[in-house]
Each structure stands twice: as structure tokens, then as C-alpha cells.
Amino acid sequence: MSWHTTAVVEEFLAEAGAFIQADPVQNTVILTMAERLRVLPVRGRASAAYTTLFGWWRPAAGRDPVSAAFMHTPGFPVVPTAMTDRAAAELASNLAAAGRLVRGVNAEARIAETFAATWRQRTGAKARVGRRTRLFRLDRLIWPDPGPEGTSRKAGEKDRDLLTEWFDAFARETRDVPGQDQATAVDDRLSYGGITIWEAGGVPVSFAAAHRLMAGTVRVGPVYTPPARRRHGYAAGVTAAVTRAALDAGATDVLLYTDLANPTSNALYPRLGYRPVGDRLELSFDPAAEGTG
């Protein structure tokens, strides 16, 4: 068997950690999720991760080097690394045979399409385009000029309720998975100073979050401004501030994803010095046929 899977994040990191960290930019989602689970108390992992499954691929028997990996949290798409068509097809086949509830796949287009083709063969589920995203990496931070009214500050416990509300609003607006525990997500970010708020006139008007520093990288997101506060440049100001904080913390690469259907964010981040490094395709599967292998 070429694919090996586990729900124990320490086992995954022991087997595939070096492979993931060899390309921390392209593997940022798996890297940051694995680190989040690693630092969570054992009792909190199940509720926070919804029994996230990890896996790694060795092309032949024995101890061949790991050459691919994936992560899957129920309710979210499967997230594979770069891999061969054979590995992608076998991954889809294995997950279908195991009865894993898979709602979609988020990968480089070729990998996503190969996975989806095998998934349809095994389950009958058709794929449709959910979203297309672009990964950006900071080249050189460019501050907004003119900058927006106000200033940035680190979020604290007093902001928890407001941030939970804003995290939930962001998830609804971006059509993310419903029913997520946004309070837990906020608490996790607050625990390491991972949320920056922009204030105008002493009132919070926008926020930007950042994942933990891992393998020299920090990934920014989400960034959110309530609709009534938009078109004042607050998102630009808070993104520049959280980017500066990541650099000051020692990040050599600062990353973020955009939805290619959102012209505002795709125009904003290049003005702040971010440059595109790759696109991903998210395919969603017909839920009527999930996991019937």
C-alpha cells in the first residue's frame, strides 16, 4: 500500500513533516493545520479538528522517501500536496473505499481533476467548480499611501465576542462550512497574538488574522471588514499591519490566499507588495453520492 493514513498529528509529522516543510509555501495549509493540532490540548483536538485525517505517500514498499501528502477535515475539501496522477487517483479510491465523507478537493488543477475523476468512478458523484484561489507571497511590504484613518493594535480577550461575530460573518460571506466553532478559532488565534484590529475613532472597524510562524512562513487570513465600514481602506491598513508583525516575528515568507472571484482582494494585495505564486482549484462533489465506495 502506497498511502498511509493517521488521525494522530504527531505520527503524521514524524513521517511526513520533513516533506511538508521542504516546501512550506505551497504546503502552507497542511503545515499550519498540523501545527495547530499539535499544540492543542489532547482533549480539545477532536472538537477543533473534527477528526482530521492526514496521510503520506511512498511510491513503493519499504522506506522510500515520502513524495506526497494530504489532509482532510470532514466538511472541508481534501487538501493534497503536489503529487503524481497515480497518487491522486489512488488517494481518491482509498478514501471512497473507506467510506470517508468527502465534499470536495482543493488542489492544483491537474491534481484536483484527477482526484475528482476517480471519485466519480467510485461513487458516482459529479464535480462542479466551487472556487478558484490564488496564493500570494510578500515580495516587499508597501504601506498604503495615503493610509486609512486610524491605527492598528493587537487584539485581546476583550475583543473575543466581537471577533467571534466577525469570524462567523466572514465564514457566511465566503460560503465556508456552516456550523464551525468560531469561538474556538478566535481563542486559538488570541493565544499567540495572532489577530490585529484596525481602529478608527477608537472603534474597531476591521481585523486581520495570522497563523502561527512555521518553517519561516506566516499565512495571513482571514481579513474582514463589516460591510458598513468598507471602502475606507481599513482592510489595506490592517493587512499591512499584520504583515509587518509577521516580519517582525521572524517570518521570511508571508503568504495569503484570495478568491479569484473577488476583484477587490485581488487588486488590494498586489498594491501592498504581494505577488502571485500559484493557483488552486476547489471542486465540490454532489452530496447525494458522498462516500459510497
Unreliable residue stretches? 289-293
Mean pLDDT: 92
| Percentage of residues in helical conformation | 25-40%
Taking all Cα atoms into account, the compactness measure Rg is: 19 Å
What is the general shape? globular
Helical/strand content category: alpha+beta
Strand content: 25-35%
Total DSSP helices = 9
Terminus-to-terminus distance: 18 Å
Query: What oligomerization state is this entry in?
Result: single chain
Strand arrangement across the biggest beta sheet: 5-12-6-11-10-9-8-7
Number of strands: 12
Order of helices and strands: EHHHEEEHEHEEHHEEEHEHE
Largest sheet: 8 strands, mixed
Q: Work out the count of structural domains.
A: 2
Write structural notes for this entry.
- By secondary structure, this protein is an alpha+beta fold.
- The protein folds into 2 domains: 3-133 and 281-289; 140-272, Aminopeptidase, CATH 3.40.630.30.
- It has 9 helices and 12 strands.
- It has helices at residues 9-22, 28-39, 42-49, 85-97, 109-123, 160-173, 182-191, 234-248, 263-271, and strands at residues 3-6, 53-57, 68-72, 79-80, 104-107, 127-138, 151-154, 195-200, 203-210, 217-224, 253-259, 274-285.
- Strands 5-12-6-11-10-9-8-7 form an 8-stranded mixed sheet, with helices on both faces. A 4-stranded antiparallel sheet has the order 1-2-3-4, with helices on both faces.
- A hairpin with a 6-residue loop joins strand 3 (68-72) and strand 4.
- It starts with a strand and ends in an 8-residue tail after the last strand.
